[in-house]
Amino acid sequence: MTCAVRSFLQYGRYLGDIRADLHASVPTVANWSMAGIPKSISASQVHSLLAQCDRRTAIGRRDYAVLLLLARLGLRGGEVVELTLDDLDWDEGAIRIRGPARRCDRLPMPADVGAALVDYLRDGRPACPARNVFIRSRAPRRGLLGPSAVSCIVFRALRRAGIESHCKGAHLLRHSLATQMLGNGASLSEIGEILRHRNPQTTTIYAKVDLASLHALALPWPGGVQ
Fold first, then answer.
1. 168 within domain boundaries
2. pLDDT digits (tens, 9 = 90+) for 120-143
3. CA-to-CA distance for 60 and 33, rounded, in angstroms?
4. pLDDT tier at 197 (50, 70, 90 boundaries)?
5. What is the DSSP code string of 72-107?
6. 3-state secondary structure of 132
7. What is the distance in angstroms between the CA of the first residue and the CA of the last residue of the chain?
8. In a domain, 201, yes or no
9. How far apart are CA 194 and CA 37, in angstroms?
10. Within a domain: residue 140?
11. Which of 153, 69, 76, 78 is nearest to 112 (CA)?
12. In angstroms, what CA-CA distances link 52 with 49, 157, 183, 224?
């Protein structure tokens, strides 16, 4: 709306209806840093989400492995797409993650994540020359097209499980993992290590969902019940 108003004022000046340059007088819209609250779902809903994957099919095995990586390790959608067969270290039980700005991290591979990956690689992944772990279910056989493909997997899983959420992308499970860790007593620094935040300040947004701690800090409303 502000861009439209500025353009209108500039156009009026161009026509000669306005003499003064007024477009700079339109104020900018405040965009506060970390003003929102991370959207998440409960642990029982995450369990239901995973349970709805039909692991008897190749697509179900793939989607289950993708969702488990998001829910257990908090991977970003793009990191799931970039995951290659060479990133899976079966000897040490670790996964190499290619994050933003070409940053590489290593995370331990939980047993259930490893089992899901093995199940997909043995009985679900199509044979193709691509080195990506996760392959499209339709031709041409290649890696997933981008983070939006991972978000579509999450969206379909939410619909199958009958879970309503304003956030329907891959970050929903990343936020849910952080919220569950916080509820189980993990510190913000520990959460930041799992989510691989480069700036510790980024993790502080999850303090907003720690209602117990916030309740202890909240001042009583004047005239209200203590």
1. yes
2. 999 999 999 999 999 998 888 899
3. 38
4. confident
5. HH---HHHHHH-BGGGEETTTTEEEEE-GGG-EEEE
6. strand
7. 43
8. yes
9. 19
10. yes
11. 69
12. 6, 7, 25, 45
* Structural contact between residues 46 and 57, judged by C-beta atoms closer than 8 angstroms: no
Cα dihedral 167/169/174/177 (nearest 10): 60
Beta strands in the chain (DSSP E): 88-89, 94-98, 104-108
Domain range holding 196? 43-206
- Residue 220 in domain: no
**Number of folded domains that form the chain:** 1
Quote the Cα angle for 98-104-110, to 5°: 75
Nearest alpha-carbon partner for 74 in 97, 51, 49: 97
Asked if omega into 140 is within 30° of 0 (cis), the reply is: yes
The tokens describing 186, both together, are 């993990």
Calculate mean pLDDT across residues 29-49. 79
